[in-house]
Amino acid sequence: MPSPYRALFAAPGSRGFSAAGFIGRMPLSMMGIGVVTMISELTGRYGLAGALSATIALAAALIGPQISRLVDQYGQRRVLRPATLVSLTAATGLLLATSFRWPDWVLFVCAAGIGSVPSLGAMVRARWAALYRGTPQLHTAYSFESVVDEVCFIFGPIVSIGLSTAWFPEAGPLLAACFLAVGVFWLTAQRATEPEPHPREQRGGGSALRAGGLQVLVSTFVATGAIFGAVDVVTVAFADERGHKGAASIVLATCAVGSCTAGIVFGLLRFAGPPARRWLLGVCAMAVSMIPLLLVGNLPFLAVALFVAGLSFAPTMITTMALVEEHVPRTQLTEGMTWVSTGLAVGVALGSSVAGWVIDAAGARAGYGVPVVSGAVAVAVGFLGYRRLSRPAPGRGGSVEQHDEHEERHMA
User: Fold this and answer.
1) Can you give the pTM of this predicted structure?
2) Range list of H helices, 117-211
3) What's the topology of domain 207-412?
4) Residue 370: in which H helix or E strand, if any?
5) Fold adopted by 15-198
6) Are 68 and 334 in contact (CB under 8 A)?
7) What is the pLDDT of residues 286-332, one digit of tens each?
8) What is the DSSP track for 7-70?
9) How many CB atoms are closer than 10 A to CB 15?
10) pLDDT tens, 134-151?
11) Which sign, positive or negative, has the C-alpha torsion 307, 378, 60, 36?
Protein backbone atom coordinates (compact mmCIF):
# COMPACT_ATOMS: atom_id res chain seq x y z
CA MET A 1 0.00 0.00 0.00
CA PRO A 2 1.57 3.34 -1.02
CA SER A 3 2.23 5.82 1.76
CA PRO A 4 -0.22 8.74 1.93
CA TYR A 5 2.76 11.00 2.51
CA ARG A 6 4.42 9.88 -0.72
CA ALA A 7 1.16 10.38 -2.61
CA LEU A 8 0.94 13.87 -1.15
CA PHE A 9 3.92 14.99 -3.21
CA ALA A 10 2.54 13.76 -6.51
CA ALA A 11 1.13 17.25 -7.11
CA PRO A 12 3.46 19.40 -9.27
CA GLY A 13 5.40 21.95 -7.22
CA SER A 14 4.54 20.43 -3.84
CA ARG A 15 8.10 19.29 -3.12
CA GLY A 16 9.50 22.72 -3.90
CA PHE A 17 7.19 24.85 -1.75
CA SER A 18 7.36 22.33 1.11
CA ALA A 19 11.18 22.43 1.12
CA ALA A 20 11.18 26.24 0.96
CA GLY A 21 8.70 26.39 3.81
CA PHE A 22 10.87 24.12 5.95
CA ILE A 23 13.94 26.31 5.47
CA GLY A 24 11.99 29.51 6.00
CA ARG A 25 10.47 28.21 9.24
CA MET A 26 13.78 27.39 10.93
CA PRO A 27 14.20 31.01 12.18
CA LEU A 28 10.99 30.62 14.19
CA SER A 29 12.84 28.43 16.68
CA MET A 30 16.34 29.83 16.09
CA MET A 31 16.06 33.60 16.29
CA GLY A 32 14.72 34.10 19.82
CA ILE A 33 17.06 31.63 21.51
CA GLY A 34 19.89 32.83 19.27
CA VAL A 35 19.40 36.40 20.46
CA VAL A 36 19.35 35.23 24.09
CA THR A 37 22.61 33.33 23.58
CA MET A 38 24.25 36.19 21.67
CA ILE A 39 23.35 38.89 24.20
CA SER A 40 24.28 36.77 27.20
CA GLU A 41 27.61 35.79 25.61
CA LEU A 42 28.55 39.37 24.70
CA THR A 43 27.14 41.30 27.66
CA GLY A 44 26.27 38.78 30.39
CA ARG A 45 22.88 40.53 30.77
CA TYR A 46 20.31 37.73 30.86
CA GLY A 47 17.51 40.14 31.74
CA LEU A 48 18.15 42.17 28.59
CA ALA A 49 18.46 38.98 26.54
CA GLY A 50 15.10 37.68 27.72
CA ALA A 51 13.40 41.04 27.19
CA LEU A 52 14.66 41.24 23.60
CA SER A 53 13.50 37.70 22.87
CA ALA A 54 10.06 38.52 24.28
CA THR A 55 9.95 41.69 22.16
CA ILE A 56 10.58 39.67 19.00
CA ALA A 57 7.86 37.16 19.92
CA LEU A 58 5.23 39.76 20.83
CA ALA A 59 6.00 41.91 17.78
CA ALA A 60 5.59 38.85 15.55
CA ALA A 61 2.31 38.07 17.30
CA LEU A 62 1.00 41.59 16.59
CA ILE A 63 2.38 42.08 13.08
CA GLY A 64 1.99 38.52 11.74
CA PRO A 65 -1.82 38.53 11.25
CA GLN A 66 -1.64 41.90 9.49
CA ILE A 67 0.97 40.57 7.07
CA SER A 68 -1.14 37.48 6.40
CA ARG A 69 -4.20 39.65 5.86
CA LEU A 70 -2.28 41.55 3.16
CA VAL A 71 -1.16 38.23 1.67
CA ASP A 72 -4.77 37.12 1.30
CA GLN A 73 -5.51 40.42 -0.43
CA TYR A 74 -2.45 40.89 -2.67
CA GLY A 75 -0.73 37.49 -2.88
CA GLN A 76 2.30 35.93 -1.21
CA ARG A 77 5.00 37.27 -3.53
CA ARG A 78 3.96 40.93 -3.35
CA VAL A 79 3.75 40.98 0.44
CA LEU A 80 6.27 38.46 1.76
CA ARG A 81 9.33 39.86 0.04
CA PRO A 82 9.00 43.45 1.38
CA ALA A 83 8.06 42.17 4.86
CA THR A 84 11.07 39.86 4.87
CA LEU A 85 13.40 42.67 3.81
CA VAL A 86 12.18 44.72 6.79
CA SER A 87 12.83 41.80 9.14
CA LEU A 88 16.28 41.14 7.66
CA THR A 89 17.22 44.82 7.90
CA ALA A 90 16.17 44.86 11.56
CA ALA A 91 18.15 41.67 12.24
CA THR A 92 21.22 43.26 10.67
CA GLY A 93 20.70 46.33 12.85
CA LEU A 94 20.46 44.18 15.97
CA LEU A 95 23.72 42.39 15.16
CA LEU A 96 25.50 45.70 14.55
CA ALA A 97 24.00 47.37 17.62
CA THR A 98 25.11 44.47 19.80
CA SER A 99 28.64 44.35 18.38
CA PHE A 100 29.20 48.11 18.66
CA ARG A 101 27.48 48.44 22.08
CA TRP A 102 24.80 50.86 20.88
CA PRO A 103 22.13 52.02 23.38
CA ASP A 104 19.58 49.48 24.59
CA TRP A 105 16.65 51.31 22.95
CA VAL A 106 18.22 50.63 19.56
CA LEU A 107 18.27 46.93 20.38
CA PHE A 108 14.57 46.97 21.24
CA VAL A 109 13.64 48.88 18.07
CA CYS A 110 15.52 46.32 15.98
CA ALA A 111 13.96 43.42 17.90
CA ALA A 112 10.50 44.81 17.19
CA GLY A 113 11.39 45.11 13.50
CA ILE A 114 12.42 41.47 13.38
CA GLY A 115 8.81 40.72 14.34
CA SER A 116 7.71 41.53 10.78
CA VAL A 117 8.86 38.04 9.81
CA PRO A 118 6.00 36.35 7.91
CA SER A 119 4.33 33.15 9.11
CA LEU A 120 5.77 30.65 6.64
CA GLY A 121 3.79 27.79 8.19
CA ALA A 122 0.52 29.53 7.30
CA MET A 123 1.77 30.28 3.78
CA VAL A 124 2.66 26.66 3.09
CA ARG A 125 -0.59 25.35 4.59
CA ALA A 126 -2.51 27.78 2.37
CA ARG A 127 -0.76 26.26 -0.66
CA TRP A 128 -1.71 22.76 0.46
CA ALA A 129 -5.30 23.92 0.94
CA ALA A 130 -5.37 25.33 -2.59
CA LEU A 131 -4.16 21.97 -3.92
CA TYR A 132 -6.24 19.53 -1.86
CA ARG A 133 -9.25 21.40 -0.46
CA GLY A 134 -12.16 19.03 0.22
CA THR A 135 -10.06 15.84 -0.12
CA PRO A 136 -8.52 13.41 2.39
CA GLN A 137 -5.06 14.51 1.25
CA LEU A 138 -5.50 17.84 3.03
CA HIS A 139 -5.59 16.06 6.40
CA THR A 140 -2.35 14.32 5.50
CA ALA A 141 -0.81 17.61 4.37
CA TYR A 142 -1.68 19.36 7.64
CA SER A 143 -0.25 16.38 9.55
CA PHE A 144 2.98 16.59 7.57
CA GLU A 145 3.30 20.32 8.26
CA SER A 146 2.84 19.78 11.99
CA VAL A 147 5.66 17.23 11.89
CA VAL A 148 7.83 19.79 10.06
CA ASP A 149 7.05 22.32 12.80
CA GLU A 150 8.21 19.88 15.45
CA VAL A 151 11.41 19.04 13.55
CA CYS A 152 12.19 22.77 13.37
CA PHE A 153 11.65 23.17 17.10
CA ILE A 154 13.81 20.13 17.87
CA PHE A 155 16.84 21.07 15.79
CA GLY A 156 16.59 24.86 15.48
CA PRO A 157 17.60 25.75 19.05
CA ILE A 158 20.36 23.12 19.06
CA VAL A 159 21.90 24.56 15.89
CA SER A 160 21.48 28.17 17.02
CA ILE A 161 22.93 27.69 20.51
CA GLY A 162 25.70 25.43 19.23
CA LEU A 163 26.91 27.92 16.62
CA SER A 164 26.77 30.92 18.96
CA THR A 165 28.73 29.16 21.70
CA ALA A 166 31.22 27.21 19.57
CA TRP A 167 31.88 29.68 16.72
CA PHE A 168 31.02 33.32 17.48
CA PRO A 169 28.09 34.84 19.43
CA GLU A 170 26.31 36.33 16.40
CA ALA A 171 26.41 33.05 14.43
CA GLY A 172 22.99 31.75 15.55
CA PRO A 173 20.91 34.83 14.65
CA LEU A 174 22.96 35.30 11.48
CA LEU A 175 22.20 31.79 10.23
CA ALA A 176 18.53 32.25 11.16
CA ALA A 177 18.41 35.38 8.99
CA CYS A 178 20.01 33.47 6.11
CA PHE A 179 17.44 30.69 6.42
CA LEU A 180 14.64 33.27 6.37
CA ALA A 181 15.96 34.98 3.23
CA VAL A 182 16.47 31.71 1.33
CA GLY A 183 13.14 30.22 2.41
CA VAL A 184 10.98 33.24 1.62
CA PHE A 185 12.56 34.14 -1.69
CA TRP A 186 12.56 30.51 -2.85
CA LEU A 187 8.91 30.09 -1.83
CA THR A 188 7.74 33.28 -3.52
CA ALA A 189 9.61 32.36 -6.71
CA GLN A 190 7.22 29.41 -7.09
CA ARG A 191 4.27 31.17 -8.69
CA ALA A 192 2.43 28.10 -10.01
CA THR A 193 1.33 26.93 -6.55
CA GLU A 194 0.72 30.38 -5.04
CA PRO A 195 -2.90 30.74 -3.85
CA GLU A 196 -4.95 33.24 -5.80
CA PRO A 197 -5.21 36.62 -4.01
CA HIS A 198 -8.62 38.01 -3.12
CA PRO A 199 -8.92 41.80 -3.52
CA ARG A 200 -10.83 43.78 -0.92
CA GLU A 201 -14.05 43.87 -2.97
CA GLN A 202 -14.10 40.05 -3.01
CA ARG A 203 -13.18 39.66 0.65
CA GLY A 204 -15.69 41.83 2.41
CA GLY A 205 -14.70 44.07 5.29
CA GLY A 206 -13.20 43.25 8.63
CA SER A 207 -10.73 40.81 10.05
CA ALA A 208 -10.96 37.03 9.95
CA LEU A 209 -11.06 37.19 13.76
CA ARG A 210 -14.72 38.25 13.53
CA ALA A 211 -15.57 34.59 12.92
CA GLY A 212 -16.93 33.10 16.16
CA GLY A 213 -15.25 29.74 15.63
CA LEU A 214 -11.86 31.36 15.12
CA GLN A 215 -12.30 33.36 18.32
CA VAL A 216 -12.76 30.09 20.24
CA LEU A 217 -9.68 28.53 18.63
CA VAL A 218 -7.46 31.56 19.27
CA SER A 219 -8.64 31.93 22.88
CA THR A 220 -7.98 28.26 23.55
CA PHE A 221 -4.55 28.49 21.98
CA VAL A 222 -3.58 31.36 24.26
CA ALA A 223 -4.02 28.90 27.14
CA THR A 224 -2.28 26.17 25.11
CA GLY A 225 0.66 28.49 24.45
CA ALA A 226 0.89 29.15 28.18
CA ILE A 227 1.36 25.39 28.62
CA PHE A 228 4.29 25.38 26.17
CA GLY A 229 5.93 28.51 27.57
CA ALA A 230 5.64 27.34 31.16
CA VAL A 231 6.90 23.81 30.46
CA ASP A 232 10.03 25.17 28.75
CA VAL A 233 10.97 27.53 31.58
CA VAL A 234 10.11 25.17 34.42
CA THR A 235 11.97 22.25 32.85
CA VAL A 236 15.17 24.31 32.60
CA ALA A 237 14.81 25.33 36.25
CA PHE A 238 13.97 21.74 37.28
CA ALA A 239 17.13 20.43 35.58
CA ASP A 240 19.20 23.26 37.07
CA GLU A 241 18.02 22.45 40.61
CA ARG A 242 19.26 18.91 40.11
CA GLY A 243 22.63 20.00 38.77
CA HIS A 244 22.03 19.02 35.15
CA LYS A 245 20.94 22.21 33.42
CA GLY A 246 22.53 21.11 30.15
CA ALA A 247 20.17 18.12 30.02
CA ALA A 248 17.10 20.38 29.84
CA SER A 249 17.25 20.62 26.04
CA ILE A 250 17.34 16.82 25.73
CA VAL A 251 14.41 16.42 28.11
CA LEU A 252 12.39 19.04 26.23
CA ALA A 253 13.25 17.35 22.93
CA THR A 254 11.43 14.20 24.13
CA CYS A 255 8.21 16.21 24.19
CA ALA A 256 8.78 17.32 20.59
CA VAL A 257 9.63 13.74 19.57
CA GLY A 258 6.34 12.55 21.10
CA SER A 259 4.43 15.22 19.21
CA CYS A 260 6.27 14.44 15.98
CA THR A 261 5.53 10.71 16.31
CA ALA A 262 1.86 11.31 17.01
CA GLY A 263 1.63 13.71 14.06
CA ILE A 264 3.03 11.11 11.65
CA VAL A 265 0.60 8.43 12.83
CA PHE A 266 -2.34 10.86 12.93
CA GLY A 267 -1.75 11.73 9.28
CA LEU A 268 -2.15 8.08 8.28
CA LEU A 269 -5.58 7.77 9.89
CA ARG A 270 -8.98 8.65 8.48
CA PHE A 271 -11.72 9.82 10.84
CA ALA A 272 -15.50 9.93 10.75
CA GLY A 273 -17.56 12.51 12.55
CA PRO A 274 -17.09 16.25 13.13
CA PRO A 275 -13.53 17.53 13.67
CA ALA A 276 -14.73 19.74 16.55
CA ARG A 277 -15.26 16.63 18.67
CA ARG A 278 -11.71 15.38 17.98
CA TRP A 279 -10.35 18.84 18.70
CA LEU A 280 -12.03 19.02 22.12
CA LEU A 281 -10.79 15.52 22.94
CA GLY A 282 -7.25 16.61 22.01
CA VAL A 283 -7.45 19.68 24.25
CA CYS A 284 -8.67 17.53 27.15
CA ALA A 285 -5.90 14.98 26.58
CA MET A 286 -3.33 17.78 26.55
CA ALA A 287 -4.63 19.15 29.85
CA VAL A 288 -4.70 15.75 31.56
CA SER A 289 -1.16 14.96 30.38
CA MET A 290 0.14 17.93 32.40
CA ILE A 291 -0.92 16.46 35.74
CA PRO A 292 1.86 13.81 35.98
CA LEU A 293 4.45 16.61 35.74
CA LEU A 294 3.53 17.58 39.30
CA LEU A 295 4.55 14.12 40.53
CA VAL A 296 7.92 13.55 38.84
CA GLY A 297 11.03 13.70 40.99
CA ASN A 298 13.90 13.18 38.55
CA LEU A 299 14.89 13.90 34.95
CA PRO A 300 14.36 10.41 33.44
CA PHE A 301 10.76 10.26 34.67
CA LEU A 302 10.25 13.85 33.53
CA ALA A 303 11.45 12.92 30.04
CA VAL A 304 8.95 10.03 29.90
CA ALA A 305 6.12 12.27 31.15
CA LEU A 306 6.92 14.94 28.56
CA PHE A 307 7.05 12.36 25.76
CA VAL A 308 3.56 11.17 26.72
CA ALA A 309 2.34 14.77 26.98
CA GLY A 310 3.68 15.51 23.51
CA LEU A 311 1.50 12.78 21.97
CA SER A 312 -1.54 15.05 22.12
CA PHE A 313 0.11 18.23 20.79
CA ALA A 314 0.43 17.61 17.04
CA PRO A 315 -3.00 15.94 16.57
CA THR A 316 -4.66 18.89 18.30
CA MET A 317 -2.78 21.37 16.11
CA ILE A 318 -3.66 19.43 12.94
CA THR A 319 -7.35 19.40 13.81
CA THR A 320 -7.18 23.09 14.70
CA MET A 321 -6.00 23.97 11.19
CA ALA A 322 -8.84 21.90 9.71
CA LEU A 323 -11.30 23.86 11.86
CA VAL A 324 -9.79 27.17 10.77
CA GLU A 325 -10.51 26.24 7.16
CA GLU A 326 -14.05 25.31 8.18
CA HIS A 327 -14.86 28.53 10.04
CA VAL A 328 -12.93 31.21 8.15
CA PRO A 329 -13.82 32.51 4.67
CA ARG A 330 -11.59 31.05 2.00
CA THR A 331 -10.50 34.57 1.11
CA GLN A 332 -9.04 35.00 4.63
CA LEU A 333 -7.56 31.55 5.21
CA THR A 334 -3.93 32.65 5.61
CA GLU A 335 -4.90 35.34 8.11
CA GLY A 336 -7.03 32.87 10.07
CA MET A 337 -4.18 30.38 10.39
CA THR A 338 -1.83 33.14 11.48
CA TRP A 339 -4.24 34.26 14.22
CA VAL A 340 -3.98 30.78 15.76
CA SER A 341 -0.18 31.10 15.77
CA THR A 342 -0.56 34.56 17.31
CA GLY A 343 -2.68 33.19 20.15
CA LEU A 344 -0.04 30.53 20.71
CA ALA A 345 2.77 33.12 20.81
CA VAL A 346 0.92 35.35 23.27
CA GLY A 347 0.28 32.34 25.48
CA VAL A 348 3.94 31.32 25.40
CA ALA A 349 4.95 34.79 26.58
CA LEU A 350 2.36 34.74 29.38
CA GLY A 351 3.14 31.18 30.46
CA SER A 352 6.89 31.72 30.61
CA SER A 353 6.46 34.93 32.61
CA VAL A 354 4.06 33.45 35.17
CA ALA A 355 6.15 30.28 35.46
CA GLY A 356 9.26 32.35 36.18
CA TRP A 357 7.46 34.16 38.98
CA VAL A 358 6.22 30.89 40.51
CA ILE A 359 9.71 29.34 40.31
CA ASP A 360 11.24 32.30 42.12
CA ALA A 361 8.57 32.12 44.81
CA ALA A 362 8.16 28.38 45.35
CA GLY A 363 10.68 26.38 43.28
CA ALA A 364 10.69 24.51 39.99
CA ARG A 365 8.44 21.63 40.99
CA ALA A 366 5.68 24.05 41.99
CA GLY A 367 6.15 25.73 38.62
CA TYR A 368 4.55 22.76 36.89
CA GLY A 369 1.29 23.94 38.42
CA VAL A 370 1.25 26.68 35.75
CA PRO A 371 0.80 24.29 32.78
CA VAL A 372 -1.75 22.32 34.80
CA VAL A 373 -3.84 25.43 35.41
CA SER A 374 -3.34 26.55 31.79
CA GLY A 375 -4.59 23.19 30.58
CA ALA A 376 -7.70 23.52 32.75
CA VAL A 377 -8.36 26.97 31.28
CA ALA A 378 -7.97 25.58 27.74
CA VAL A 379 -10.52 22.84 28.49
CA ALA A 380 -12.97 25.35 29.98
CA VAL A 381 -12.73 27.64 26.95
CA GLY A 382 -13.05 24.65 24.63
CA PHE A 383 -16.25 23.43 26.29
CA LEU A 384 -17.75 26.92 26.42
CA GLY A 385 -17.07 27.49 22.72
CA TYR A 386 -17.83 23.98 21.47
CA ARG A 387 -21.24 24.88 20.08
CA ARG A 388 -19.67 27.55 17.89
CA LEU A 389 -17.11 25.08 16.57
CA SER A 390 -19.67 22.36 15.87
CA ARG A 391 -21.62 24.67 13.53
CA PRO A 392 -19.48 25.67 10.52
CA ALA A 393 -20.21 29.17 9.29
CA PRO A 394 -22.10 29.46 5.98
CA GLY A 395 -19.86 29.73 2.94
CA ARG A 396 -16.78 28.44 4.75
CA GLY A 397 -14.59 25.62 3.52
CA GLY A 398 -16.01 22.35 4.82
CA SER A 399 -14.15 19.43 6.30
CA VAL A 400 -13.37 16.24 4.43
CA GLU A 401 -16.21 14.46 6.18
CA GLN A 402 -18.70 17.15 5.12
CA HIS A 403 -17.36 17.00 1.57
CA ASP A 404 -17.86 13.23 1.45
CA GLU A 405 -21.38 13.58 2.86
CA HIS A 406 -22.21 16.18 0.23
CA GLU A 407 -20.95 13.87 -2.53
CA GLU A 408 -23.05 10.98 -1.22
CA ARG A 409 -26.20 13.11 -1.18
CA HIS A 410 -25.45 14.36 -4.68
CA MET A 411 -25.05 10.80 -5.99
CA ALA A 412 -28.29 9.74 -4.28
Assistant:
1) 0.75
2) 120-132, 136-166, 171-188, 200-203
3) Growth Hormone; Chain: A; (1.20.1250)
4) helix 369-384
5) Growth Hormone; Chain: A; (1.20.1250)
6) yes
7) 999 999 998 888 889 999 999 999 898 888 888 888 888 778 777 77
8) HHTTSTTHHHHHHHHHHHHHHHHHHHHHHHHHHHHHH--HHHHHHHHHHHHHHHHHHHHHHHHH
9) 12
10) 788 888 888 888 888 878
11) negative
